[in-house]
Design a protein that fits this description.
binds fe (ii) ion; 2 domains; 73% helix; Ferritin; mainly alpha; 7 helices
Length: 187
């Protein structure tokens, strides 16, 4: 079937779905490799959304809960952006990923309860969550780094680069939390 016929069919289908034909005309297509990378990135973002949701529940320190919740929101935006790309559209990135670390730095020190050995255990548990989250961010940031090199469209590379920057920022937010709470021994 000639390309022009395919475009006409897409325009008719989009008219039924209420999408402007111009959006269909601007739809991006992917090589097999690009499509496969986007699929992997989407899976990773889904895992991140789920993980930060669970970690926000499990964290003992309210400040850490807040950090995990905030990161989860950004991961949700990443998931949306990658899904939009998979649908052949360019996501609107705006200011997403530019999280303000200040909001998490106001509450210094530890929460009040529990005390003694229970506090020690609670902090150990939180430290584990932080370490695991940093490992995840490293992994995801690496996946974006590798993927960027495979995409033909410079604008898409820019989107992936922006998301990668946000993952590094998440790692930094968690690192800062650990450093403030004596959980991170510099080597
Ligand atoms: Fe992400």
């Amino acid at each position: 079937m000639p390309v022009s016929t395919l475009v006409e069919i897409e325009c008719m289908k989009s008219a039924v779905r209420g999408i402007l034909p111009t959006e269909v005309m601007n739809m991006m297509t992917w090589t097999q490799k690009e499509a496969s990378l986007l699929k992997d990135l989407k899976q990773q973002e889904q895992l991140c959304v789920e993980k930060y949701g669970q970690y926000a529940q499990r964290a003992n320190d309210p400040e850490l809960k807040q950090i995990f919740q905030s990161i989860q929101q950004t991961e949700q935006q990443h998931l949306q952006s990658v899904s939009t790309l998979m649908n052949g559209q360019m996501p609107q990135m705006g200011q997403q990923g530019q999280q303000n670390q200040q909001t998490h730095q106001k509450q210094n020190g530890h929460w009040q309860q529990p005390t003694g050995a229970a506090l020690q255990q609670a902090m150990e548990d939180d430290k584990f969550l932080c370490q695991d989250a940093i490992c995840t961010e490293k992994e995801v940031s690496g996946a974006y780094n590798v993927s960027i090199f495979e995409f033909r469209d410079p604008q898409v590379r820019q989107v992936l680069h922006q998301i990668q920057g946000a993952e590094q920022q998440h790692g930094e937010m968690i690192y800062q939390y650990m450093a403030r709470n004596g959980m991170y021994q510099a080597q």
